[in-house]
Amino acid sequence: PGTDHAGIATQNVVERDLAREGLTREDLGRERFLERVWRWKEQYGNIIAEQLKSMGCACDWDRFVFTLDPHYYDAVMEAFIRLHNKGYIYRGTYMVNWCPRCRTGISDLEVDHRETDSTLFYLRYPGQDGGAGIVVATQRPETILADVAVAVHPDDERYRHLIGQAVTLPLVGRRLPIIADRRVQREFGTGAVKVTPGHDPLDYEIGRDHGLETLVALDEHGRMNDLAGRYEGMDRFACRAAIAEDLAQGGFVVRTEPYRTSIGHCDRCGTVLEPYISEQWFCRMKELAAPAIRAVEEGRVRFFPERWQRIFLDWMAEIRDWCISRQLWWGHRIPVWYCPCGEIVASKTSPAACPACGATGLRQDGDVLDTWFSSALWPIATLGWPEETADLAYFYPTAVLATARDIIFLWVARMIMFGLEFRGDVPFRDVYINPTVLNIEGRRMSKSLGTGIDPLAQIARHGADALRFSLLLRCSQAQQDLRFSEKMVEDTRNFSNKIWNAARFVRMNLAGFRPDPTGGWHGHLDLADRWIRSRYARTVRDVTALLDAYEFDKACRALYDFVWSEFCDWYLELAKPALSGPRRAAVQQTLWGVLSGTMALLHPVMPFITEEVWQSLPRDHETPSLMVAQWPGFDPSLVDEEAEEAMGLLMDLVRAGRGIRADMHVPPGRRVDLVLVAPASRHSRLDQIRPAIAHLVRAGRVELRGSDGEKPSQAAAALVGDVEVHIPLAGVIDLGREMARLEAELARVETDLQRVRAKLNDREFVSRAPSEVIEREREREAALERRKQTVYRRKRELTA
User: How far apart, in whole angstroms, are the C-alpha atoms of residue 178 and residue 163?
Assistant: First the structure.
């Protein structure tokens, strides 16, 4: 476990604190500023770790690592120097994504593209010979101060005759040639575009290829520089408004129109980014990417869900060199030293003298490395690399990485590349991409927007187990967005209560019980024992397979259904009478074996309650914790098809009997007679389960009759396959009052049915209502019709 130093984000926070005091980092100087950041880190840097601990994340907390720890720092320096010496790291002047607020370049992957309402300005650039010139469209009039040409597509018939001529730059008067380039999009604006190599990536390429001058009108703060003349010192957006007004007054604005476009923002501070020419350090990626691509294609790294593999490979095939330097002070300072003679030395420590001229006092590069450069080393640096440690030999490569889709390229890809480069093997075999947790409206969680949810508050209200289970129950590979609401945690808390109450019942009935030291499931078993053991065995098999496939939602659903519906609702009820009879030992063994095994299956999802329950149960071994206990193994000998079939019939008959009681308003404490009418071939099986039916339906007696036998009179009935379930009601309920109630219910149902059908027969309603509303009304119609038929049947049964 551990954290990275989050270079840009952390420095931003501390600089904002300084700004409140009227200070900048330059006022403090590098050393004092870093002291300030370290103090902030000590105060706030472990919040996430404490949340993880509270949620029960089973990390080895004694091994906690921070990416600026001395050993980790050394690993980062080693990686840089090795890559530099191989020629993979180089320094160059290129256009980068620049954040004027953070005053640093950032990689393409750290750009937050946002749809934004803008204005498209149509500007006339007069012909240099006094002619009409040409009209260009731009969103950024402030950058015309750095224009060096106007470009059109060579096949555009509108402008072919102008290629090679020149126009005059508005407000400035500079001569601009009209050039032809196939990269111009004829559909944008007028099909003619201004070329500003200093402020646009495509223009930068066009300018380079055509040998055009590169002018820059903005400084690193996003303010206009000395090229801007009278606009010098203005903020870029203020300058945009001022230049737009001056262009209009000068008669250069042909028209404007609203325009919606995607604009890049800094993903750390939200500032609109600038394309900015800057000298930076880069890492060549094609050479590093090729082995990583092969590893994924060959199946040495697998993605779950599998569709992310294709996305990963497509991105890797088009990978560009990585800008790894950041103009920050917080982070891993680039281990490069400069001599006035021009010599550049890559070294972990300051060179004693220049190897070229012998000069001393070499100057270290002032930039730091991108935080993701150090994070890419996590699988090896945390295990001791570059030293050949025992941990590195034992744990590398690891088994699985669980992460989010938005850092597949920022982190996952880079860990794979660095693992192969420095260890010759992939860092992990499986990559599980978990869903992104959104709020109930489907928005990303954000403290600033008020859409964030504090996990510690949820834990305080509902418990860590409830929070974990509620999330994992929705961790689906089919759906990669998870909408969170507190109600889903409340519902899972009820599941925790169910487990706790079931465990308390089991413990109360284990007096004198000692587990079988052989781990066997011996004893005098009846149908219920055989059935629950069979269902438990299948649950072990299914949950194990689902966890192995990272199908966490399905594993949780299987556990929920087994614990709540089968173990608690059925087996515990059937076990109660048996615990006071000769079968007590067998039932105790079954209760203990199923509950302790189920706690092990649930432990990865709900570690706290399962550990508590497991510790409270008798044990046949000295294992100190469920966390390190043996995982339950699938025992095929416990699977009992016959018991499952018989219990299936039992449960259906019990549901039918309970349904009749509820329908006919039989008081819960009132015992009834039950008559089962079935073919003679079914009587043996029905006789076997008759006592259980009587217990669960609260029947005084259960009578079996043949299919050709007399049906009971004044009895409500239900059909389960070829078995009829009858409950005689004479003397059990007031038949006259029940008949009146049924008549009243029938009248209500028919009134509601008429109202729904009138809606569905109304052409205006059907033509205007949303499809989901119409479908809801049709479902209501069908439900009312079913209820109507049930009431009719109950009336006939009371008079038969």
Answer: 5
**Facing residues of 482 across strands?**
437
For residues 550-561, one letter each, b for 16 or more C-beta atoms within 10 angstroms of the residue's C-beta and e for the rest, the string is bbbbbbbebbbe
- Cα 228–chain centre separation: 46
3-state DSSP of 391-429: HHHHHCCEEEEEEEHHHHHHHHHHHHHHHHHHHCCCCEE
Task: Give the model's pLDDT for residue 12.
Answer: 87
Exposed/middle/buried for 669, CB within 10 Å: 0-12, 13-18, 19+?
exposed
CB 180 within 8 A of CB 152: yes
Angstrom distance (rounded) from CA 48 to CA 491: 26
Read off the pLDDT of residues 413-450 as tens digits, 9 standing for 90 and up: 999 999 999 999 999 999 999 998 888 888 877 665 66
Q: Is the dihedral of CA 56, 57, 61, 64 positive or negative?
A: negative
Show the DSSP H helices in 603-760 as ranges. 607-616, 641-663, 683-697, 735-760
Q: How many CB atoms sit inside 10 A of residue 64's CB?
A: 14
325 burial type by CB count under 10 A (0-12 exposed, 13-18 middle, 19+ buried): buried
3-state secondary structure of 324: coil
**What is the residue whose two structure tokens read 């189920």?**
598
CA-closest candidate to residue 69, choices 328, 345, 323, 377: 377
Asked if residue 236 lies in contact with residue 99, where contact means CB atoms within 8 angstroms, the answer is no
Q: Is the pLDDT of residue 623 over 70?
A: yes
CA distance 281 to 88: 10
* Cross-strand pairs, 113: 264
Report H helices in 705-770: 735-760, 763-768
- Determine the Cα–Cα distance for residues 620 and 517; give it in Å rounded to an integer: 5
In a 3-state reduction of DSSP, which class is residue 145?
helix
Average pLDDT over residues 484-489: 89
Dig out the tokens for 630 from the structure.
């043996």
Separation of alpha carbons 572 and 568, rounded Å: 5
> Strand, helix or coil at 615?
helix
Q: What is the pTM of this model?
A: 0.80
Q: What's the rounded Cα separation, in Å, for the pair 607 and 466?
A: 10
Predicted confidence (pLDDT) at residue 241 exceeds the cutoff of 80: yes
Q: How many CB atoms lie within 10 A of CB 781?
A: 17
Which residues contact residue 751 at a Cβ distance below 8 angstroms, ignoring those fewer than 6 apart?
none
| Pairing outcome for strands 192-195 and 274-283 | unpaired
Q: Which residues pair with 138 in a beta bridge?
A: 121
Give 543-597 as a DSSP string: HHHHHHTT-HHHHHHHHHIIIIIIIIIIIHHHHHHHTTSTTHHHHHHHHHHHHHH
**CA proximity to 93, closest of 197, 236, 233:** 197
CA separation for the pair 313, 310 (Å, rounded): 5
* Other Cβ atoms closer than 10 A to 675: 21
Give DSSP secondary structure letters for 514-534: ---TT----S---HHHHHHHH
- Neighbouring C-alpha atoms within 13 Å toward the C-beta of 122: 13
Amino acid sitting at position 311? I
Q: Give CA–CA dist 180/163, Å, rounded.
A: 6
Q: Please name which of 535, 797, 583 lies closest in space to residue 691, comparing C-alpha atoms.
A: 583
